[in-house]
Write a structure and sequence with these properties.
By secondary structure, the protein is α/β, with parallel strands linked by helices. It has helices spanning 53-72, 79-100, 105-111, 116-125, 144-169, 190-206, 217-227, 270-282, 295-302, 307-314, 325-332, 337-351, 375-400, 417-426, 440-450, and strands at residues 2-6, 11-18, 21-24, 33-34, 36-39, 113-114, 129-132, 175-180, 211-216, 233-240, 245-252, 259-266, 357-361, 370-374, 406-410, 431-434.
Length: 451
């Protein structure tokens, strides 16, 4: 049995085909989970200490050395006192070694928490490590240690998916078709695509898959749309996700297999709107555009997906920044608070897609601190992305030379009415078909995996 996996920037899902029907994998009570993982600090218990033969040897060596030092100094030390002191040293060294030693994959997986529960656990524990949207970093120029960390996180998420599917289906899952964007987010151009696929392939094998193949996400969405289309026709498939936007031109419907003519993509999506909304709507509360704090500090605080930028933000000092901005920035550096702020930004973006204004309570920064954002702020924040989306769709329209019979719209960000309107405006002669925003891609990946 082969699994289809949508490893998304914002959310992840999986599905399989059984007896010709797509069956979603359940993650708790939901059919997807936020692509976020929390690794709590796993403290070693000193009571687990036992004297192994190697430690007994170290203990005896320390006792002998201490006895020689005592005799040389003309001191009388009892054997029991020397042993107790040496035992404390051996135990301390053992604990320090245990804390330095990397946790096993099994231990990390047992303690890891995924999805929205990961955020809640991180906020409650106020320690450990929270990683959000690791997919967004796969194509960047990574230090070897950072690459190892990202690969390890991807491995844990894919292993979580594989084991959850295996339990639900009551059979070991060892093969999968994994979705990929046309263009990964990258700081190294086309090499970023190759690097991202290499990391994901290695992570999947480490997660227990025997084999893995990739399918571009708009092609997967086209397969899903094809399965629901009784009549053969020309279509453009638009998949607007959290980190990327992908488009495919395809012949779908009828009895034949779908034909994918071409695909386009940009490494932009809903998280770019989040960033712009955070910087323009929320960061002025922390002094952006008001104080002399460098602009990049606010970008570092807002980009919760970038572990390096988050670390850099926490290392700044704001003691000399006037109140209320200095104390607010210092509060934002506290464990979990950039993630709390990002969640408020996400909620605001979603709310403003259907209401005129949204109120955010920021008590975790300062008691009684409130922020009201109106819809015009979202329009401004979305302007940069909308321009890039419009340019992409104009290119697609130019390349294919006509309006297709239908435009199939999917992806988490396709819920936004202003994005639906932008897609409709780009293809005025086409029928706009709104698919399931969350599951269009994963259903297509399951169908592809079954073929």
């Amino acid at each position: 049995m082969k699994l289809g996996i949508d490893f998304g920037t914002s959310n992840s899902a999986a599905a399989v085909v059984i007896d010709g029907k797509v069956v979603p994998i359940q993650f708790g009570q939901a059919e997807q989970f936020r692509t976020t993982v929390y690794f709590p600090e796993v403290m070693r218990d000193p009571n687990d200490f036992e004297l192994t033969p190697a430690l007994e040897h170290d203990l005896a060596r320390l006792v002998d050395a201490a006895a020689r030092d005592a005799r040389a100094a003309g001191q009388e030390r009892s054997p029991d006192a020397l042993r107790r002191e040496a035992l404390r040293v051996v135990r301390r060294q053992w604990m320090e070694e245990q804390m330095r030693a990397p946790l096993s994959s099994t231990t990390l997986l047992q303690n890891a928490v995924y999805g929205d529960d990961a955020l809640e656990a991180y906020f409650e524990e106020n320690e450990g490590n929270l990683v959000q949207s690791p997919k967004s970093m796969l194509g960047y120029n990574l230090h070897p240690r950072a690459r190892q960390t990202i690969a390890g996180i991807a491995t844990h998420i894919l292993e979580h998916i594989r084991l959850t599917a295996s339990r639900q289906l009551d059979t070991p899952i060892r093969t999968a078709t994994l979705g990929r964007p046309v263009q990964f987010r990258s700081s190294i151009g086309e090499a970023g695509n190759a690097q991202a696929l290499e990391i994901l392939h290695g992570a999947a094998i480490a997660a227990g898959f025997d084999s893995i193949d990739f399918l571009e996400e708009p092609a997967a969405a086209a397969m899903h749309y094809h399965a629901e289309s009784p009549r053969e026709h020309d279509a453009v498939v638009v998949d607007i996700g959290g980190g990327t936007t992908d488009v495919a031109h395809a012949r779908v419907g009828g009895g034949q297999a779908p034909t994918i003519h071409r695909a386009w993509g940009i490494a932009r999506g809903g998280t770019d709107i989040d960033l712009a909304l955070s910087l323009g709507g929320y960061m002025p509360l922390f002094g952006r555009g008001i104080t002399r704090v460098p602009a990049h500090h606010f970008v570092e605080a807002a980009m919760v997906q970038d572990m390096t930028r988050q670390r850099d933000f926490r290392q700044h000092t704001y003691r000399d920044v006037d109140a209320p901005f200095g104390p607010r920035l210092t509060a934002l550096q506290d464990t979990g608070n950039t993630a709390r702020l990002y969640r408020e930004v996400e909620r605001c973006k979603i709310a403003l897609s259907s209401v005129a204004s949204h109120d955010s309570a920021l008590d975790f920064i300062e008691r009684g601190l409130q922020m009201q954002i109106d819809a015009s702020r979202l329009e401004t924040a979305a302007g940069g992305y909308l321009g890039e989306l419009t340019a992409l769709l104009e290119q697609v329209r130019s390349d294919i030379g006509h309006d297709p019979a239908a435009v199939f719209l999917t992806g988490g960000m396709s819920r936004a009415g202003y994005l639906q309107q932008a897609v409709a405006n780009a293809f005025p002669g086409s029928t706009l078909v709104r698919g399931n925003p969350s599951f269009g891609v994963v259903h297509g990946l399951a169908l592809a995996a079954a073929n």
